[in-house]
Amino acid sequence: MPKWPLSPGRVRAARQSARVTVATAAGFYSALYVLDQPVVAVYALFTPIALGVLSPIPGGGRDRARTILFALPAAVALTALGTALAVTTASAVAGMLVIGFAISFVSAYGPAAAGVVPGLLLFYVLACFPPYEPDTLPQRLCGLLAGVALLVLCELLLLPAPSVQPYRARIADALDLAAGSALAFARGHRHAPERARRLREEGLGLRLSQAPPASRPTGAGRTDRGLAQAGSATRRVLNQLARMAERPDSATAADPPSEELLRGVADGCAATAGALRGARAVPAPESLEEMVADFVAVRGQPSGTGLGADAKAPQRLLEFRSGLLVAADSALTAQAAVAVAIGGRRDSAGLPPEQFWYAKPSTTRLLVLRLTGNLTLRSVLFQNAVRTALGLGAARAVAGALDLSHGFWVLLAVLTLGRTTAGATWSTVRSAAVGTLVGALVAGVLIYEAGGHVEVYAAVLVPAMFVAFAVGPIAGPAWAQGLFTLVVSAVFSQLATADWRLAETRLLDVLAGCTIGLLCGVLAWPAGAHAEVRRGVADVLRCAGPLVRDTVSAVVHASGASGPSGASGDSPPRRRAAEEALQLTRHRLRIAEGAYAQYRTEGDRGAADSGPDWHLALNCVSHAVVGSHWLPRLAYGPAPPEAVRWANESAGRLAAAMDSAAAFPPDGVRAAPVPLPHEVVVAAPAAVLPELVDVDTWLRTLAAELTAIGGSGPDGPSPATRGDGSPSAGGRDATAGEGG
Question: How confident is the model at residue 16 (pLDDT cuts 50, 70, 90)?
Fold first, then answer.
């Protein structure tokens, strides 16, 4: 065996192997040698393997035990259904197609559901093979229940996996840092590069990719959606405060309205953090909402302290206040999202209802929306479910048509070796074939030398299982298949008299499964998520262009609004067009994000691979969605004609650039919105000037991100800042969703 240095991942694999080995051995040996029930023994053996090895269930010991118990009713139902449908090959194949798709598609509900999918499929696979013996169903279920009980006990008592820090605790820590920073800024301690670095690092820690799978709020329910939105909003608070800390002192002179709002942001963040830790009741967002509304009402007025004598000082003050409003709006969004997630609130207070569309629908409705939103050929979840169903159905048909004595192994090979791309599948099955060949040779020698001495197989089984379950997950498919071949040979040699041909049968069945899996990988979406992320990002960029144009039009043609607590007063047709564009963009964004998430799991793709920056493209569209929620609500009157012309021209340029960027690779795309002319700033009414500054900085932010997607943009400031270092505005928080 190769020598691997000790690491936390390998320690976890060894501990999990110990738990599964103890549960498997206890159930198998007791049923076979004490009760003399071979059927019970088979299911008591494969149940811990299905739910403990084949299923990557996330979380600590208690979390894993809870997930296993939740999966028990489905496992019982699938075992009963497989037993009934094994009456003919046709019925078994039809059931495999339907059940394979349905169970695989359940992974859309989140990491816990996705983790148990392979194990649940194994229960149907194991039960649907001949001989057709419905009278053995009670024994099968007894073995299944025994295996679940033993595995749950081992998860709880035998070297239990440590608990995982919940995502809400990460949000609480980040909000505490935001509260301390906002309070320091209110007291005048603003230019602090070291504090900015800490804020950005804490914000990066809120990325879902940085959280353990068990703690990621990716489920379809209200709590997960609320926590995901709270995490996104909190990260925006941290990033905006970091930009404020990076500003030179001359750009952040004392400004009483800003200082008052900063204190309100600090109080709101601290209160929300306490609620997330359970130390206090969930605060209502109305208090901070009123402070934001008061700030919006006066942000166009000049400061009594002044920012300098140059002509652009009023505009810089507006840019600073607009940036502060971004942070305050984000803190308000985080507070409202937490109120929905853990406080049971079913409305969005005075915030845009579309931001919290998930607050009112029932849990059942949210689950249905998650599934129906992925019922499209463009969804990688749908593609994976179809690929899995076709592979398992074909394997069952081949095993039945050829009357393979251990056809179960064919399906198990398809289930464990299938990958989402043809290249990855070929690499996996090639290694698995070599490993199985070597394992079959070793197993053949073992069976030949041991002859009919069952005690030899019984002695070999436990150490073989421990090594297979500990080494297989970290050493690759060759080791996994080779060691598992030795395990199953030792198992079936105890159930019935066997000769060396058992190892030969294992090899041929695995090769048949590899062939079927490879064919499915070649014929069904062979490029995996690469083609879909390319198409998905292109589609969402095309949707975002009209969204930008409609949003800007709604802002500059507004007939009056009442701030964040009110609704935009622009004409219904314009607002309706913006809402339709927003809904379509949100849907496309969800599909593109799903494709990108899988894309990052395929092969050896890392964060620094070449090609377009897909993640930046998704961020660009997300920022467009975010701004479309808030900008129309902050418009206090129609802009003068020259400002309308500027806004429409600038938004039109950006929309055209988004359409051009959709033709990947987007080399040469240069998004350059028209800068806000100084004469427009001078001529604009005081009530309208803030909304023009918001539009300008929003378009600049989107343009900078769009230009950088191809990786060939010009050197310049970060997309999050303007050329003068001032923070971007117009970026209000929202989350993409399936509907609203």
Answer: very high
